[in-house]
Amino acid sequence: MPKADRFLKACRREPVDVTPIWLMRQAGRYMPEYRALREKHKILELIKTPELAAEVTFQPLSAFDLDAAIIFADILTLPEAMGLELEFVSGEGPLFHNPIRSPDDIRKLKPIDPAEALGFTLQAIRLVARELDGKVPLIGFSGAPFTLACYAIEGGSSRNFIKAKTLMHNETDAWHQLMERFADAAGKYLVAQVHAGAQALQLFDSWAGILSPADYVAYVQPHTRRVFDIVRESSDVPLIHFGTDTAGLLPHICRSGATVIGVDWRIDLHAAWRVIGEDFAIQGNLDPVTLFADIETIKEQAELILQQADGRKGHIFNLGHGILPETPTEHVAALVDFVHSYAIPAP
């Protein structure tokens, strides 16, 4: 089977020769090539210069035998394009200088034309897709409405998301207006990525795990489904839903419109499949910290996950979250090679 087919076939729950693997944040701070670029360029400069974003996207593909590329970008350029002032502060991470705190702030958000507002990422996708020339698929992505709302309301990351949850409960109409705006913008952005050359899409709902199941269903699920519905109206590419600490939400996440469900290390694969059913592919789910262990331990932990998959159609090996900055690159290479060497049991 051509390497180019593995990832997409697994997303569609079709037979594959070996388990495909790609890794979230596979382009990033653990790679010396990336760190060399960051010494010369700020993060937003890398993201907003298509040639540099394309270069970063290719770095892990040159180093490891990965089955998919993911465009180098950031989920927060979307709310920035809608009018929020974004800055990446050393030691603190992303900050919005004009966070959303009231219904009036929500009304000030601008609708976007992705080609105009986020054209730098679309051009990077075109450059990467042209250079890849079908060797491996390219994944595009966006932040999900809830995670974008959390960042926009808190003004950055948060431990408890008090401001976001308070607005959600106390200003319910305003909350849904905000989520609708983010859902429409994210859907349009993802469609534009497909037109530019992305062959699969991932929706990052990184903070969904902070919610109770009832709150997820009432305040988030309809808007997540709206994003996927917008994409599905014009494309049939695989749609991946990613979140962390979402084991308790899986019965609802699988009804949000994705075709591939990302799970983290807090739930075993066979348990996740029992919850969501066999009609979905699953992506995951090695703990990123495992990559700091010795190589034999990494292989043992990866084998446990592959044994849980047990030859089912539709398993994409990944981490349960992004690669951590200090991860040894030789451990990444060993993981990728081991996953490819593991014989898939006959169905």
Task: Describe this entry's structure for a reader.
The chain has helices spanning 3-11, 32-38, 43-48, 50-63, 77-81, 103-107, 114-117, 119-132, 145-154, 162-170, 172-196, 213-219, 221-232, 250-253, 269-276, 295-309, 329-341; strands at residues 69-70, 86-89, 93-96, 138-143, 200-204, 239-242, 260-262, 281-283, 315-316. With 347 residues, it is of the alpha/beta class. The chain has a single domain (3-341), classed as TIM Barrel. It has a seven-stranded parallel β-sheet with strand order 1-4-5-6-7-8-9, with helices on both faces. α14 (250-253) links the parallel β6 and β7.
Per-chain topology:
Layout: H1 3-11, H2 32-38, H3 43-48, H4 50-63, E1 69-70, H5 77-81, E2 86-89, E3 93-96, H6 103-107, H7 114-117, H8 119-132, E4 138-143, H9 145-154, H10 162-170, H11 172-196, E5 200-204, H12 213-219, H13 221-232, E6 239-242, H14 250-253, E7 260-262, H15 269-276, E8 281-283, H16 295-309, E9 315-316, H17 329-341
Parallel strand pairs: 1-4, 4-5, 5-6, 6-7, 7-8, 8-9
Antiparallel strand pairs: 2-3
Helix pairs in contact: 4-8, 9-10, 9-11, 10-11, 11-13, 16-17
Calculate the mean pLDDT score and round it. 96
What is the highest CATH level, the class? Alpha Beta
Number of strands: 9
Radius of gyration: 19 Å
What coarse outline follows from CA principal-axis ratios? globular
Report how far the terminal alpha carbons are from each other. 18 Å
Spell out the helices and strands N to C: HHHHEHEEHHHEHHHEHHEHEHEHEH
The appropriate CATH architecture is Alpha-Beta Barrel
Estimated share of beta-strand residues? 5-15%
Assembly type = single chain
Query: Given the helix and strand composition, which structural class is it?
Result: alpha/beta
Query: Residue share in helices?
Result: 40-55%
Largest sheet: 7 strands, parallel
CATH-defined fold name:
TIM Barrel
